[in-house]
Amino acid sequence: MKQALITGASRGLGLALARALAADGWSLLLTARGEEDLFSAAFDLDARAIAGDVADPAHVARLAEAAPELDLLVNNASGLGPTPMPRLADYPLDALRALVETNVVAPLGLVQATLPALRKRRGAILNVSSDAAVEAYEGWGGYGATKAALDQISNVLAAEEPDVAVWWVDPGEMNTSMLAAAVGEQEAGAAPPPESVAAALLRLVASRPESGRFTRGELG
What we know:
The chain is α/β, with parallel strands linked by helices. The chain has helices at residues 12-23, 35-45, 57-66, 93-121, 141-160, 177-183, 185-189, 194-207, 216-219, and strands at residues 3-7, 27-31, 48-49, 72-75, 124-128, 165-170, 212-215. Helices cover 51% and strands 14% of the residues. Belongs to the short-chain dehydrogenases/reductases (SDR) family.
């Protein structure tokens, strides 16, 4: 049975993808900071769960130890930064440093910890990106900069690890609590549900294309 480790798995896209993979027969290790929602999801999916912050090296070590036979790492956990989302001229630098830690350093740390298992299984890494990494949206400069950094980390990682597939995916807008915090509940409510994106990601994993960046439209 194939095994996946999913971060930010208690809600939104992480939870939707966990459900899709479980239905496809995958064994799951789930993590998120919110214990109650995480353990509820794990119970429903017959999955293992370890609550914690992926920016905590000790938590990352526990996750890697719990997944010695890993086929798929999904770096989905992400922070939005301050809300209302400030322009770069007013962006609090301490908040930006914290966001870089969560959105850039933490995913790379988990990649480093799980690479031995992924190499052994010729596995795959799926890093969740954003169109804010490549587009100039007012107010999204801090978040977008972290996702641009994650894109480049993914790009170089793909060149350095030819036996591991690396995909960085812009899922587009989804009706999630994160989007609602950024743009308001009304606009977020008009976006597609994360389940539709999860189905596309499941097809991506199953088809195992070459490493690269994918948008929601390209996934079909």
